[in-house]
User: What shape does this take?
Amino acid sequence: MERAFLETIFLCGIALMALLQLYYFQNFDADRKILNAQKKKRMFLYLLFAGIQVIPFVYIFSIDFGATDYHFWKWLALPVFLLFLFCLWLFVKGMTDLGRWWVPGQELKEDLELVTTGAYRYVRHPMYLALLGLAICQVFMIQNWIAGPASLFLVTPFCIFQIRREERTAGQVFWRGLY
Assistant: This one.
């Protein structure tokens, strides 16, 4: 597989993820004040958007980054492609398994439950695992020292931050259910 093919597949996959998130966000009806109060999360999301979508897009459609390109062995293309497809599937599966429980923040609702079915039966945070996998795939699919690892350096702190927040929230839900 050639680099152009990998880059095209990467852009299509990221576009699919963005459309899925827009679909779920349209069906989300929460207090916008809560969402606006989450400034750290919004900052992370803007950085993620830049690292996963904007920087690779600019790289692929620009000639300015040519001096910072690198090249991997061609035999890596198929395993990376398969990993990319698996990570896309895991991300979509994670969002669809959450269904009506998906919220763009971690505010507590009265009827909040811990989802333990589907992908969540095997992995505690499948969407974050998928994001980390996609960031690793980006290193191999977008073979540039700037655009390739951009999301890896942004996704990792985001996932750590979010997992810590969600674990605190899950603990609050657990203890609230006992009383």
